[in-house]
User: What shape does this take?
Amino acid sequence: MCVPAGATGDDRRAMTEAAISAGARQAWLIEAPLAAALGLGLPVAEARAHAICDVGAGGVQVAVIALSGVVVAVSAPAGGDQLDAAIVSWVRRRSGVTLEPRAAEALKVALGSALPLDRPRSVEATGREEGGGPSVTVAVSSAEVTDAIREPLAALAAAVREVLAQTPAGLAPDVAERGLVLTGGGALLRGLDRHLAREAGVPVRVAENPRTCAVRGTRRALGEFELLQRRQLYLR
Assistant: This one.
């Protein structure tokens, strides 16, 4: 089971107990950034460092990994749900129309970009007037969506910079050379890799099939019990 890198010992115990109560004979936990790195096929056991930015629905986890462990990790409220909420808030302020989260997500998928698009586009979205009024259709442009998500993307970039600042001096050259790998569904946001490379000053690339990296890594970890056992020390 994946857990956030910043999950407390109590959080982890609760997840383990819940899994066992549900019928599991044994539950193993692994931090999501480490699972994502395993899913990418990275040699996580080596002493050289790898940097992962997992952009999930509920938030972002940025971590540096070496020797099969998380060396430093920072979380930020800048995942897919926060991007959707920022779009809802922006449209409400601009047009007085409240969108459902699903409509905001559709705008993000159709128009969302961390950087202005070379060919701006616009689509229509349907919501309700404030106060429970009738349905209203509004036109939203790609430039407006980029402006709407600026704040959560700033929080994401700040988390990346914080991790880089906290990375031990002996590992910093590895991160500077290898850069940062984006995983999770949010990694597919247009221009996110270029935006973060500019903001953080390190190379950034999007993983292949980023949505499933953590899932693939969790499956791989089942065959590496020595690694998993080391991750369970908080239970002792």
User: Anything to note?
Assistant: The chain has ten helices and ten strands. The longest strand covers residues 69-76.
